[in-house]
Amino acid sequence: MRVGILFLGAALILCAVAGKLACAVGATGRGINRLAIGAGMIPRGEVGLIFAGIGTSLMLQGRPILAQGVFSAIVLMVLVTTLLAPVGLRWAFRRASSLSE
């Protein structure tokens, strides 16, 4: 595996996590656990994975629209964010319960 693909995967993971946590700031209301909302939104890359799969099979002038390396980085992002969400949710709920005590 090339190092560039790993860097792209890491950048996608960072953007996915930061973007979901930033969007959770927009949740309004009393007693809302914004951290839990953001952590719960983290594993939402499955639709992107479907479109990436389509992108690898579509051709433009005889070449795939999406390179295999980019597809690998997207798969890495989906896997890591899917595994990261339960850990983040557990941490967010434990943090919230310790703050309320």
Give the topology, please.
Elements: H1 3-23, H2 34-41, H3 46-57, E1 59-60, E2 63-64, H4 68-100
Antiparallel strand pairs: 1-2
Helix pairs in contact: 1-2, 1-4, 2-4, 3-4
Question: What features would you describe in this structure?
Answer:
The chain has 101 residues and is mainly α. It has one domain (3-100). The chain contains four helices and two strands, in the order H-H-H-E-E-H. The protein has a two-stranded antiparallel sheet. Helix 1 runs parallel beside helix 4 and helix 2 (34-41) packs antiparallel against helix 4 (68-100). The longest helix has 33 residues, at 68-100. It is elongated, with a radius of gyration of 17 Å. The chain starts with a helix and ends with a helix. The relative contact order is 0.18. The mean pLDDT is 89.
